What we know:
Elements: H1 11-19, E1 23-27, H2 31-39, E2 44-47, H3 51-54, H4 66-79, E3 84-88, H5 98-112, E4 116-118, H6 126-134, E5 139-144, H7 163-179, E6 183-187, H8 191-200, E7 205-208, E8 216-219, H9 221-224, H10 242-259
Parallel strand pairs: 1-2, 1-8, 2-3, 3-4, 4-5, 5-6, 6-7, 7-8
Amino acid sequence: MKADPRPLTVTDLLTMKAAGRRIVMLTCYDAVFARLLEEAGVDVLLVGDSLNQVIAGHETTLSTTLDQMIYHAAAVRRSARRALVFVDLPFLTYQVSIPEAIRNAGRVLQETGAHGVKLEGGSPMAETVSALVERGIPVIGHLGLTPQSVHALGGYRVQGREADAADRLLHDAKLLEAAGACAVVLELIPAVLAGRISQALTIPTVGIGAGPQCDGQVLVLHDMLGLNEQFSPKFLKHYAELGQAVRDAIRTYAAEVRDGKYPAREHSFE
């Protein structure tokens, strides 16, 4: 389907769910990829705190800073003309108190021009989501495997396999919807449970490792492009193998430099 050329709004997410049109979301951390993703028709650019791992080389997302997120989100937003841009709120920038969450989320929108924020957690975060939405800050929730709670969850494991855990996730999703969230990311949960949640909500669900019944899908850009070659979980599909393509290009460049083939006359000024 050809992308609608007009800029998307947050209310379009509800329209897309109602129309049965799947939402395409990818992480994005810089202006060059923002332009490429938008030209390819991606609906939502998520400036994820995964940049702490993908770009900065840390083991987890926990040390991500608000300044770090704002820097990358501003770069993405400068290139994004049609797609929605949402920004992860880092660990401890929204959990401590509602006033602090409002200040930090407001700063993200004010300094980057992003359309909204994403935060992790269910019932404990419902009041925070409500407070942000009441102040005009769109919020995407995040349930299931929540990377900021990776140590409490015992690692990167599928969540919601037991009946009580599944019921709790469904309950949390309904609370986030009632609080005003415009969408919910579902990460690493059984496909059947993701389907239950998607059917129970009027707001869209966006899955990552949550099966095909969600209203949209999100992947980490560098993972799906094959740039993060050491990461290959079951849910990930490589749509390119750019890691090898990059190595091949650099080896060719290095060989031509060493052999004196580059720069040639056509690359030189008279």
